[in-house]
Amino acid sequence: MAEVEETLKRIQAHKGVIGTIVVNAEGIPIRTTLDNSTTVQYAGLLHQLTMKARSTVRDIDPQNDLTFLRIRSKKHEIMVAPDKEYLLIVIQNPCE
Amino acid sequence: WRCCEVQSHSSRDAGMQTDQSEETIQNLNLQKEAPVDYAGLLSFLQGVEDVVIKELNKNWRSHAFDGYEVNWVDQNETVFCLHSLSCPEAQDQKLQVTSISWNATGSVVACSYGRLDDGDWSTEKSYVCTWNLDRRGLNPKRPDLVVDVPSSVMCLAFHPSQPSLIVGGLYSGEVLIWDTSRIEDPLIWRTGMTDDTHTDPVYQVDWLQDSKHSHHFQILSVSTDGKILVWRTQRDGQLTLVEGFALVAQQIPWSMKLKKRTRGETAVGVTSLSFSCFDPSVFIIGVEGGYSLKCSTAVETAAVPRTGSSVPLKAPAEFAFSPHGGPVYCVSCSPFHRNLFLSGGTDGHVHLHSMLQAQPLISLQLSKKYLFSVRWSPVRPLVFAAATGEGEVQLFDFGKSSQKPAVSVKQASAQTAVYCIEFNFKQPQLLAAGDASGMLKIWQLSSDFIQQGPREMNHLEQLANEVTD
After folding, report:
1. pTM of structure
2. CA–CA distance from B290 to each of B33, B39, B271, B293, B352 (Å)?
3. What ipTM was assigned to the predicted interfaces of this complex?
């Protein structure tokens, strides 16, 4: 368990990282560095978006699969690393 | 109230990373119901960690998106006048627009009429008018509602959540509240002329949150008699005094560096007030003496006693800022930074102040005549608007130039002052401006004034950090 926390801390400590969330296969957040309501919002919306992105990739080419999702907005970049059981969501403010 | 309706945001200074390993990783309550397979979670994280960190580092160093902007909405290049509103009765009497307020839904604009320039005003009656801009049959020369008022109305404020309640402060010192949904007799509360009533014109009114008695409202009124009074509505239509503050010359907390001003018990005439958008007990006031003061509602010090008040008045001033070259008519606290505020006055200058020091951070001359109103933009942290004595509405962008306005809009002739401006918080592309010719103009702003730029908050933080004291 401590190793899980250490890994998340390392990610959270990177330059510009605003928040880190781990979501399970049902879209439920299980670890977060943000407040409850923001976390629930990010988890729900990004879980759905990741599923849609994955089905888009596989519809175009069934031999292909989603490996990483990045959303660039005016204010931040949201990164999603997906997996069968979990999603890791990292929000970064990439301003110099 | 005007600044507290801005949507909440979180801001972090990404350039200065303190030790974030101290930030706790929360276990959400949900997790108790769904047992977590730690082995599986660890193996997932170990698998993705390198990839994620590599991407985070690449992002930090990347210039790929520098200057890249996407337009999701139609770009509107210019500022243009959407409506020119006027009231025939007020035009006949050659009254001026003294104050503007947008209602809680952002669809109704109200203005008050009176006089701000010449001396003869005591018996002249005036008007409060409203227009619903979203209504189809909008007639710019015929307001939806015209309320007759026995004295010049100097200031107005719509209730922050109840779209039909509006409070006004009069030249006579009275405070009145109207319900614009009552056609027959909209006046529902008044202070009347009692011993507690202001003895000078009321220049600003605001609604206060009354958490203890949610079915009553509290109103704050500011006057050049030196008093800031808080009233509560009673069932009989009366506004009664619940608490108040008085500004007296000898209780002004001058720092060592500033010259001593007039001493003694003279009242300090208050012309304007702005609450901090971050701390509801902190407010800034502008005074006739030409300076602004940081005040708190949480003070205990009694004001030097003066006769006539049913409730003991307190001395609210905690810090004095360095003066303008003339009376200050307007102050505005930033909705985006807790320490920043603007002040403007008859010397035609706007000062950008940090509450942490007496000297302004920036001093700009926007007009050779008076500045009557300054307002921060509700959506662009670096932008403010100013109303000048030369008939112009100026929009200033600290991100573009620190010397001259980004846009200068001609509302009226150079001899006709613009007295008041208000942004519409619900529709931030709209800016209302009222002038000495009695015209209320609704300006539609260009797209660059409506959306926050990508590094704007950082820039604002930098400005605020230039404190030298």
Report:
1. 0.75
2. 62, 68, 10, 10, 15
3. 0.88
